[in-house]
Amino acid sequence: MSLYEKYSALQLTHHAGGILEVVMGASQSANRKLSTADHNLHRELAEIWRTIDDDPSVRVAIIRGEGKGFSAGGDLSLVEDMANDFAVRTRVWKEAKDLVYNVINCSKPIVSAMHGPAVGAGLVAGLLADISIASKSARIIDGHTRLGVAAGDHAAIVWPLLCGMAKAKYYLMLCESVSGEEAERIGLVSLCCEDHELRDKAFEIATKLANGSQSAIRWTKYALNNWLRMAGPTFDASLALEFMGFSGPDIQEGVASLRAKRPPQF
User: Fold this and answer.
1) Is 152 exposed, middle or buried (0-12, 13-18, 19+ CB in 10 A)?
2) In sequence order, what E strands does the chain have?
3) What is the DSSP letter of 74?
4) Which residue among 123, 147, 241, 266 is least packed, with the fewest CB closer than 10 Å?
5) Within 187-230, where are the H helices?
6) Whole-angstrom Cα distance, residue 134 to residue 183?
């Protein structure tokens, strides 16, 4: 069985030089929709990094979105299932934890290419990637407080380290969007580029990484990511608080307001 046979929500393409391109929500791209993390995509986003780590043919992974943006966050049906079903909530909690730690612990370097809205589970991989690239059209949003739950996922483990505590609190507590240019200015992403340059820039950087000393690059990643591992208890607490919120009253209003496309009334 192919290592990648079980993946259907992700489009996976092997390129020359050991580069694997991971595209989220490929089945939705034909309609130019935003990729939303439903049950399948959320699970696959958590698992793919272990598979990449086990694949000797891959030297670098690129993750990007199709259509109107990078990722649109959690599918509302999944969110409602999490709010209403304890078994789903505990399963997705483990997937959310695995997603963060699997990206951090994947020995292969990861390059993200973000355009348009970048929200939810996709954003986890986008900002935890070793080299993160945002186009000028990118709108990075951690939407948790808008939904009525704590900013869990990846936020507590990496935002304060990337852009400082003051900026992290501002954007995470107020649920404000960050443009690609602003994200580069405050250090939230590695680079910002024009929209039409995004994919080419991602491949340019991935090719440099693939052509470099694999042991040196992978060990450098491992050492630097110890900063993130030290923040593990902070992340674990934030994720627990987020998922506790899925059993509270505010999540119902958050989902209802999103469906009605109106401001929430908490």
Assistant:
1) buried
2) 10-15, 19-24, 60-65, 71-72, 110-114, 117-119, 131-135, 139-140, 178-179, 191-193
3) B
4) 266
5) 198-211, 214-224, 226-230
6) 8
- Cα Rg for the chain, rounded, in angstroms? 17
Give 246's contacts (C-beta < 8 A, 6+ positions apart).
Answer: 79, 82, 83, 89, 149
Q: Two tokens at 185? A: 């200015």
Residue 34 is predicted with a pLDDT of: 60
Q: Kindly report the pTM of this predicted structure.
A: 0.93
Order the strands of the 117-119 sheet from edge to edge: 71-72, 117-119, 139-140, 178-179
For residue 190, the Cα-to-chain-centroid distance in whole angstroms is 15
pLDDT higher than 70, residue 37: yes
Q: Nearest-CA neighbor of 251 among 95, 80, 131?
A: 80
What is the distance between the alpha carbons of residues 109 and 31, in angstroms, rounded to a whole number? 31
Residue 58's contacts (CB-CB under 8 Å, 6 or more residues apart) are 14, 18, 19, 20, 52, 108
Provide the sign of the torsion angle of the four alpha carbons 40, 45, 48, 50, taken in this order: negative
State the amino acid at position 90 in one-letter form. Answer: T
Confidence of residue 29 (pLDDT cuts 50, 70, 90): very low
Quote the Cα angle for 248-87-237, to 5°. 55
Q: Report how far residue 244's alpha carbon sits from residue 41's, in angstroms, rounded to the nearest whole number.
A: 22
Q: Please state whether 260 falls in left (phi above 0), alpha (psi between -120 and 50) or beta.
A: alpha
User: Quick one: which of 109, 133, 120, 265 has its CA closest to 189?
Assistant: 133
Instruction: Let me know if 76 is exposed, middle or buried by CB neighbors in 10 A (0-12, 13-18, 19+).
Output: middle
